[in-house]
Every structure is written in structure tokens, then in C-alpha cells.
Amino acid sequence: MTHSICTSEGGELRYFQRLWRTLLAPNLDPRTKLEQLFEQETAEFGLDHAFLSHIDLENETERFEVTHGSHAALEPGATVPLSKTYCRKTIADPEGTVAVSDAVAEGWEDDPAYEAFELGSYLGTTVSVEDHLYGTLCFVGAAARDEPICDEEKAIVEMHSQWVAYTLDRFARPPFRETRPDVIGGRPVSSDEIDSMMDALRVRTRRVILMSLSGDTTEISVEALERHLNLENARMRLHHSDLPRLASAGYIEWDDESDTISTGPKFSEVEPLVQLLTEYDSAVPE
Fold it and tell me: For the chain, how many helices (H) and strands (E)?
């Protein structure tokens, strides 16, 4: 089945109205928007499944981040060798888009990707952020398509890819990753919370700030932090980078007037990791 935008007269306006209602909905998170897009567009393309993947060129793997449709090999979070995927052809294509209407008729029957996934049809395009490959956005079917995939359908999936790339570029952490509960300090935490904690702790100056607030100390002056850090432009770094970032995450509260910091509403979330670091590092401001 060919996409309705290619066949219906005057259907473009109705299609884009529905599309923008999904992608611009202010009360939906990016992952939910993409899941709804997949549900709508797999029906439009006459295909069974869809997925957004992240490709690791260094390790030559592909990880499925968001998927639609029931397929044993296309599960969110699953990682497969890139050499056994259809997408290896997509990222190598000069245009970055590959369409397979009938895999067997087009010579894919002996290909490792067909042997691994047994997909009869495939429409995929690359997703790039700041000119760097992120992964692919694909719509696939278990059987061959009744009608060949046309250029207009390729343009549609490329348009969806641009929205995904724009969304990825806007967020500090991958917005489409599935959140999975873990446990830190006896409390369930999501993958997003873990990412936030790791971001806070990966820089030494931010570690020192958080470590200074662990234990009995609940407030400290920024001047004391500057003295302890003993770094060139320490004040500028604290005021323009580290303090705003930690305050935005909710780990600290920063009083501009008194130029002091204290524990924030989410400090308890990161505190178990901070305490663990404190055991191995006594460099806490006086």
C-alpha cells in the first residue's frame, strides 16, 4: 500500500495537520510523540514495524531505542552486530536512504540481514546530529510491499528523520531512550536520573561542590570553593557553568545575594554516590 499523501488529491493538508498535532503536542514527551508517529506511519506505509536506532561505528553495533510492532529481534534496548543489519547499507548509501520493496526479488535472500531479521520490505534513512551519524529511522515489513516504495515515501521518512535530529539536538540527554528503574541507595531510579547524576559527577569541580555538601555541612560559600579549587578563572567557571548546571538539576540551591550554596531538593538522589566518592577523596573544602 502506497502512503496516502502520494495518492489522495488534496490530502496533504489533512495529513500535515494530523502530523503536526502529534509532533508539536506540548503535553507529550519526545518518546511518546515518536511512538505515536510510528503507529500512524506504519499504517500509512502498509508496513508492520518501525524503529529508531543508535549506531556505534567504533564497536560496529546497532541499538534499537524506540520500536513499534511485535518482532522478536526488534526490541527496545536490543543491540545487534551492524554487519547483520539492513541499516549498514543505509549508512553507506550516498543519499543516506535505502528502500527495499521486495527483499527476495531484489537479491537480499542470502544477505546476513535477511537471514537475521527476515524482513521482506525496508525503508530507512540516516539520522545525524551536528553532521555526526546518530543512527537510523526505519519502517519495515515482514512481507514484500504490494506496491514499490516511491520517491515521495522516501522524502516523507527523510522529513521524519529531520524532526528526530532536531529533537536530539535540543536535549542534553538522549530524549528517546527508554527509562528503566535501577536502585541506588535503596531507592529506585530511572535511567534518565542516572544520566543526570553521571553528568553532575563527571567533572571534578562539580564533584567537589557536591562533596562539600555531604555529611554535616549543608551550606558553603562560593568563595570557600574558589579557594579550595585554586583554579584559574575558578569564579567564572563556577558562576557560568558548574553552579547553574547543578542548580538546574536540583542538586544544589544557589543564593546569588549571599553567594552561598546549600543542598537542593534532589540532593538526596545523588548523595549515595557522593558519599561513595567522599570515601576515596578527602579533598572537601574547609
Answer: 12, 11
Q: How many CA atoms lie within 13 A of 103 on its CB side?
A: 21
DSSP secondary-structure letter at 24? T
For the segment 174-229, what is each residue's pLDDT rounded down to a tens digit? 667 655 555 555 556 666 777 788 888 888 888 889 888 887 777 899 888 888 88
Gyration radius from the chain CA atoms: 24
User: Per-residue confidence at 111, pLDDT binned at 50, 70, 90?
Assistant: very high
Give phi and psi for 260, each to the nearest 5. -125, 160
3 state DSSP class of 153:
helix
- Cβ neighbors of 163 (< 8 A, separation 6 or more) are 23
Joined grid coordinates for residue 39 = 503507529
Q: Which domains does the chain have, with CATH numbers?
A: 4-170 (3.30.450.40), 182-280 (1.10.10.10)
Secondary structure of residue 126 in the 3-state scheme: strand
To the nearest 10°, report the CA torsion of 165, 169, 172, 174: 10
Query: Which among 225, 185, 175 is positioned nearest to 205, based on CA atoms?
Result: 225
Tell me which residue has cell 547499507. Answer: 89
- Alpha-helical runs (H) found in the chain: 4-7, 11-23, 30-45, 87-92, 112-117, 151-170, 191-201, 204-212, 222-229, 234-237, 243-249, 267-280
